[in-house]
Amino acid sequence: MKLYYDLHMHSCLSPCADDDMTPMNMAGMGMLKGLSVMALTDHNSCRNCPAFFKACEGYGVVPIAGMELSTAEDVHMVALFPTLDAALAFEEALESHRMAMDNDPAIFGNQLVMNEKDEVVAEMKPLLIAATDLWMGDAVEMVRSFGGVIYPAHIDRDSNGIIAMLGDIPPEYGFTAMEYRDGGKREAYEALYQEAAGKSVLVSSDAHQLYKISEAENCFPFEVEEGASAEEIRAKIFSYIQNG
Ligand SMILES: [Zn+2]
Ligand SMILES: [Zn+2]
């Protein structure tokens, strides 16, 4: 069985995402579009992942808990965790690394935490789109210490992509995967940037609106047995990402 995926999406917890990007709406839209696996990657927080897991399980989609981490260099990185618990433990550890600046919903948008019934249970105070105080090396080390994988987000984008911000992909972090917004740009990037070549490739939507969630168009270069469990599927995906 092929696994169609989208591993970079923002819920209503990200101020820049639509308020109707609720966990239930996202999971339902993913199911309608034929996705088998979805990761929730809000800016610098995993707090909608518990509701997202429940919603995905209801719709028969395999969920992955993640976040889009902004390093101190203001580079966007995708961090994915093997379990919901690991993601929530990371969230706690990240708290002291967020910028001490509160969100102004009138300017940046709402930061809504939802429960599994799509009810708002809290609004997050710290502005989640600000950079953290974690330099890239510390961010990489911290995510890995929680069992997570971390790789540069949308390397083909100007805003907050690693190449746009740093001029190149530094080899010292040992990245095993690269994320593209547009998979068609892969060959050109691999020719230009040595560190991008030969890595596992992920193409994801970075959706902030429901209609932008990927169609069933990107699948992994491996298949799984019909009836494989969510744990088995997540393990295969992590091993693919780690072995690029
Ligand atoms: Zn980003
Ligand atoms: Zn994003």
Give a topology summary.
Elements (H helix, E strand, L loop, with lengths): L4 E2 L16 H11 L3 E7 L5 H11 L2 E9 L5 E6 L2 H11 L10 H4 L3 E3 L5 E4 L12 H10 L3 E4 L9 H5 L10 E4 L5 H7 L7 E4 L26 H13 L2
Helix pairs in contact: 1-2
The protein binds zinc ion (ZN) (2 copies).
Describe the structure.
By secondary structure, the chain is an alpha/beta fold. The chain has one domain: TIM Barrel (Alpha-Beta Barrel). The protein contains eight helices and nine strands. The chain has helices at residues 23-33, 49-59, 84-94, 105-108, 136-145, 162-166, 186-192, 230-242; strands at residues 5-6, 37-43, 62-70, 76-81, 112-114, 120-123, 149-152, 177-180, 200-203. The chain has a five-stranded mixed beta sheet with strand order 1-2-3-4-7. A two-stranded antiparallel ribbon has the order 5-6. A hairpin with a 5-residue loop joins strand 3 (62-70) and strand 4 (76-81). Helix 1 runs parallel beside helix 2. The relative contact order is 0.20. One zinc ion binds at residues 68, 76, 153-154, 160, 206.
In a nutshell, what does this entry contain?
This protein has helices spanning 23-33, 49-59, 84-94, 105-108, 136-145, 162-166, 186-192, 230-242, and strands at 5-6, 37-43, 62-70, 76-81, 112-114, 120-123, 149-152, 177-180, 200-203.
